[in-house]
Design a protein that fits this description.
The chain has 135 residues and is mostly helical. It is 44% helix and 0% strand. The longest helix has 52 residues.
């Protein structure tokens, strides 16, 4: 059912709307709601299409959709490939991403640059209750 509404609920809503607005205004209200929903759909479709075109137009300059370029980038079978491991900063150095090496705010759970989950043993933020207390 739509939003958990049973047919009896829909009938009850229709009767209340009929009593509130009357039989003459009810079709007009239905048309206005339909027009508003249609405009909303068209607006979201326009925004989605403009965002898609903007993303595809700006896109990464190093990435191409040409299949031949992609095929030549893959090494031939038997060819050795040098693999560079991601940068790993020591946990004592601060709250750095173990994947890309970006610095993150203390207490962050995910990298603000690549989205990789940060290790739990990074430097924790200071306790707010201890800040500002004078001994």
């Amino acid at each position: 059912m739509l939003f958990g509404l049973q047919p009896i609920h829909i009938v009850f809503i229709f009767i209340v709307a009929l009593l509130l607005f009357g039989p003459k205004r009810l079709p007009e209200i239905g048309r206005n709601i339909g027009k508003a929903l249609n405009e909303f759909r068209n607006g979201t479709r326009e925004i989605t299409n403009s965002l898609r075109t903007e993303v595809t137009d700006s896109g990464d300059t190093g990435v191409t959709n040409n299949a031949s370029v992609v095929r030549t980038a893959v090494p031939a079978p038997g060819q050795s490939v040098a693999f560079k491991a991601p940068f790993k900063a020591p946990a004592s150095a601060g709250n750095f991403c173990i994947h890309c090496g970006a610095a993150n705010v203390p207490g962050a759970r995910f990298c603000n640059q690549c989205g990789t989950k940060l290790p739990e043993n990074t430097i924790k933020p200071p306790d707010p209750s201890s800040l500002g207390q004078q001994v």
